[in-house]
Each structure stands twice: as structure tokens, then as C-alpha cells.
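Incident log, structure service

09:12 report received: a user says their structure output differs between two submissions of the same chain.
09:20 pulled the input from the user's history:
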Amino acid sequence: MSRNELPTLAPDALVDQYLNYLRVEKGLAGQTIEAYSRDLTRYLDFLHRNEVHAIAETDASMILRHLIELRSQELGARSRARHLVALRGFYRFCFQEKILSEDPSRMVELPKIGFKLPDVLSVEEIHALIQSPDPSRPQGVRDIAMLELLYAAGLRVSELIGVRVPDVNLEAGFVRVTGKGAKQRLVPIGQYAREKIQFYLQNARNRLINGRSSVYLFIGRQGKPLTRQGFWKLLKRYGQQTGIEKRLTPHSFRHSFATHLLEGGADLRAVQIMLGHVDISTTQIYTHVANDQLKQAHRKFHPRG
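09:34 re-ran on a clean worker, output below:
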């Protein structure tokens, strides 16, 4: 179906076209598209119950009514904000395709959810976590290399477990990362990570893979790639061993990576590229973290702080 036929479509068909647009033209990951689909399907159900048969019949008040209904169903502010983000993208698509003469979602403000600083580990806490695995066991050697790479490159856990052996260039000091929407980026890694990965490849990986064949760098049980759940369990155990009381997740390493770089004077644009953020506004959250910590340091150490 061509785009100039879109204005004749019912809301359900328009949503299908929008999701296909996100998949094909925007290259969004499957999980992201599924989340948009769930939220938009809920909106479509709301429109059907209110006997709305065309997107042109909707307006800002209709969107507000939907959000109020979600609140009455005890959906939290963060979840309602996510719903509105999905609706804004859909309405923006309809406006761009000239299905609507204006975008009614622009009139609706996001629910106030407050600003929550991400959990940031200190350099000492990162060091303690990396030292936690038992280096006398092949699994421990693997885990040390994983934690070093996670912090060295600021990876998401899905990116970490997806790293293949050819993706790592130890001589040049880079790792090729496949991020959201299958987009690839090159991220530099330092000497610590390079040494630990080299040691893992030379001394532990073959013992873990046990004669099997796998292109993935980090191997789990029976020579299979390590899973997200498997890594979460490992990290939780090492957090307990080190006595870290902060809420510890794989993303804690990513938050710490970005914050420590900015505190050290790194350029925001460079951090954006290394994190794989499409929009620099996503990266700017870390400037809030760094600035907050700078203010704390100023209050503590300045004579008139």
C-alpha cells in the first residue's frame, strides 16, 4: 500500500503502517516495537469503546481522557508517560503523512514522574566488583573479562552477551558493538580490558567451550552463549560478595562509564557516540549526575561551600 493511500485507512491499519515504518525505516529493535504495539493497541481499544472510527475524529481531549482512564486503572506516572510517548510518535507520523492537519498530542504534557538519578558506582566499587570473581576457575576468568569490557565500553547487557570473537580487535583496542536497531558502532577499550580479554581467550574460553564451536566471545554452560539472566545472576552474586548496598544492575556499569568519563572532562558528544545514543538529549542525563556530584564536592571541600 502506498503512502498516498494512508488517509483512507482506519486507526488499526494506520497503527500497523506506523509500526512497519518504525521497523523498516527507523530500524528499531523488536522489543521496542513490541512495547509501542502494546501501548497503541490499548489506545485503539479505547477508541473502539468510544466509537471513534477515524484518527481525524480524535483531539487532545481524547488523548487526555485515555490517560485519565489509565490513571484510574492504577497505571503509574512512568507507564502513562511511556504511553504518551508512543502516542506522540504515532500522531507525528500521521501529521507527517498529511493524514492529519495538526498533531493533537503536542498539546498534552507528559505526566510528572520526577527526575531519578541513575545509580552510579564509585571507581573503588567498580574495582572491587571486577576483583570478585575467582581467577583460578575458567568461569572466574571469563567474568573478570566481562566486567572489564562492560565498564571499559559502557555496554548494555544485550550488547555484551552479543559480542563475537571477531568483534574484538585487541591490537587496535576497539570492540565492534551491535546496539539497538542492529546499528553498529566502534568503541575504544583500554589496556585493562584488553589484557583480561586476551588472558580469557588464551586460558579459559577453550575450557568453557569444551570442543564445541561458537562465534560468541563469552560462553556459558555447555558451550552456549551467556544469557541476560545468567549475567544478572552473576552480577548479583558479586555485588553480595563485595557488600555493595546500592541497587546493582548491568546498567550501573553503563551509568558509571558515562559519568566517570564526563567527570574526567570527556566531551558530551564523544560519550554519546560511545554509548550509541541517537539523540544527545538522552546522553545529557549524565551531565545531571556529574553536576550533582560536583556540587557535593564543592560543598564538602570549598572554604565557603
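09:41 both user submissions now match this output. Likely a transient worker issue. Closing.
09:42 reviewer note: Residues 1-8 have pLDDT under 50 and may be disordered. The chain has two domains: 3-107, 123-301.
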